[in-house]
Amino acid sequence: MTTLGLPDDIHACLFDMDGVLTRTATVHAAAWKETFDDFLRRREGPDFRPFDAHDDYDRYVDGMPRADGVRSFLASRGIELPEGSGDDPPDRDTVQGLGNRKNALVLRKIEEMGVEAFPGSVRYAEAARAAGLRRAVVSSSANCHAVLVAAGIDDLFEVRIDGLAAAERHLPGKPHPDTFLAAAHDLGVPPDRAAVFEDALAGMEAGRAGKFGFVVGVNRADQEEALRRHGADVVVDDLAELLGEAP
């Protein structure tokens, strides 16, 4: 193992953003809850079963592209909606409309609350750069660049594969490995020489499916065993642990 806590033959680090680099997972969970609870309340009345910002978020939407998250959660409740189109207004009850409402809420919350990067993750990315490892961000968020800029860490990464890039290149989102594979390709590093850093179960599955050289599970939601079951080679609470530091 290197001083970065990685196998010696790893030449690139592929980082998820929300929950790994930035403290935005809670913002996303809150936006999903507001979106789904409003929809369910209108559909089912005051006795509706609310969206659980922990269990439902982790199981059905975390790490997925927005529309996939909408479909996944609604399917868990036996609900099917028309797909709609990408420019559907946020108050339209379609898959795309609900996704657009969630996105508008996230942008509002980020503007109100700002974005904070995890200090341990920043130190790790800086150490990876100093060690000469290639670095990419792989996120399903269409707002990835704005979040990285707001957090002041966009200069740490050479490649960004986000929701916009995935749409342009017709890449399926996590748990499919395609976005991570695209990042490794753009860095010029084969998958078995790249490490994936993820906090979502869908991201663990993507790392395993892509046959990456090493998969690091970041345990932000008290799900260490689940991260291991879904593909993590090692699980840490903070990336600083891989440097031998306290978070």
UniProtKB/TrEMBL annotation:
<dbReference type="InterPro" id="IPR036412">
    <property type="entry name" value="HAD-like_sf"/>
</dbReference>
<keyword id="KW-0119">Carbohydrate metabolism</keyword>
<keyword id="KW-0460">Magnesium</keyword>
<dbReference type="GO" id="GO:0008801">
    <property type="term" value="F:beta-phosphoglucomutase activity"/>
</dbReference>
<dbReference type="InterPro" id="IPR023198">
    <property type="entry name" value="PGP-like_dom2"/>
</dbReference>
<keyword id="KW-0479">Metal-binding</keyword>
<protein>
    <recommendedName>
        <fullName>Beta-phosphoglucomutase</fullName>
        <ecNumber>5.4.2.6</ecNumber>
    </recommendedName>
</protein>
<dbReference type="Pfam" id="PF00702">
    <property type="entry name" value="Hydrolase"/>
</dbReference>
<dbReference type="InterPro" id="IPR051600">
    <property type="entry name" value="Beta-PGM-like"/>
</dbReference>
<dbReference type="InterPro" id="IPR010976">
    <property type="entry name" value="B-phosphoglucomutase_hydrolase"/>
</dbReference>
<keyword id="KW-0597">Phosphoprotein</keyword>
<dbReference type="GO" id="GO:0046872">
    <property type="term" value="F:metal ion binding"/>
</dbReference>
<keyword id="KW-0378">Hydrolase</keyword>
<dbReference type="GO" id="GO:0016787">
    <property type="term" value="F:hydrolase activity"/>
</dbReference>
<keyword id="KW-0413">Isomerase</keyword>
<dbReference type="InterPro" id="IPR006439">
    <property type="entry name" value="HAD-SF_hydro_IA"/>
</dbReference>
<comment type="similarity">
    <text>Belongs to the HAD-like hydrolase superfamily. CbbY/CbbZ/Gph/YieH family.</text>
</comment>
<dbReference type="InterPro" id="IPR023214">
    <property type="entry name" value="HAD_sf"/>
</dbReference>
